[in-house]
Design a protein that fits this description.
With 180 residues, the chain is an all-alpha fold. It has 4 helices and no strands. The longest helix has 61 residues. The chain is rod-shaped, with a radius of gyration of 24 Å.
C-alpha cells in the first residue's frame, strides 16, 4: 500500500515539474509576444510622426525590445524539450522571429536616414516609411499567429496534466481506502 502511495506521489511530482516548465515557457512566449507588439508599434509610431524626438525614441525602443525578445528566445531554446510537438511549434516561432528580426534593420536604417532629412523632405518620405512598417507588420502578424498556437498548445498540455494528476489522486485515494 505504501509503495502505491509513494509511486503516485513521485509521478505527480514529475508531472508538476513538467507543468511548471511549460508555464515558464508559456510566460516567455507571452513576454515575446508583448515585445513584438511594442516593436511593431514603435515602427508605426515613427513612420506616422517623423519628428526627430519620436524617431530617436522609436530607435531606442526597437533596439531594447530586440534584446529582450532574444532573451526569451534563448530561454525557450534552452528549456524546450527536443523531439516533441512543442519543439516543432517553437521552431515555427523562431523561424518567423528570425524573418521579423531580419526585417528590422531596414526599419532602423530608414529611420536613421529620415532623422537627418530637412523638415520639408519628411512628408515625401512618410509613405515609404509606412510601407516599410506595413511590411514588418505582415511578418509580425505571422509571428504572432505562431506564438499564439504555441501558447495554446502549452496551455492545453498543462490543463491535461492537471486533469491526469487529479484523476491519479482520486484513484489512488479510492484504492488506499479500499485496501485499508
Amino acid at each position: 500500500i505504501a509503495w502505491l502511495g509513494v509511486s503516485v506521489v513521485q509521478k505527480i511530482d514529475k508531472m508538476t515539474d513538467e507543468g511548471i516548465g511549460m508555464l515558464e515557457r508559456s510566460g516567455a512566449v507571452s513576454d515575446m509576444l508583448s515585445q513584438i507588439v511594442i516593436l511593431n508599434r514603435s515602427e508605426f509610431r515613427a513612420a506616422a510622426d517623423l519628428k526627430e524626438s519620436v524617431i530617436q525614441e522609436s530607435l531606442k525602443t526597437i533596439e531594447e525590445r530586440i534584446i529582450v525578445t532574444n532573451q526569451s528566445v534563448t530561454f525557450l531554446e534552452k528549456n524546450t524539450p527536443a523531439g516533441t510537438r512543442e519543439s516543432e511549434l517553437l521552431k515555427a516561432v523562431l523561424d518567423q522571429w528570425r524573418k521579423y528580426e531580419a526585417e528590422l534593420p531596414n526599419t532602423i536604417q530608414a529611420l536613421k536616414e529620415v532623422s537627418v532629412l530637412p523638415p520639408e523632405a519628411l512628408e515625401a518620405k512618410r509613405s515609404s516609411m509606412l510601407k516599410e512598417a506595413n511590411t514588418s507588420r505582415g511578418i509580425a502578424l505571422l509571428l504572432e499567429q505562431e506564438m499564439s498556437e504555441y501558447k495554446r498548445y502549452l496551455t492545453s498540455e498543462v490543463t491535461q496534466q492537471g486533469q491526469i494528476a487529479g484523476e491519479m489522486v482520486s484513484s489512488t485515494t479510492r484504492n488506499l481506502w479500499l485496501a485499508a
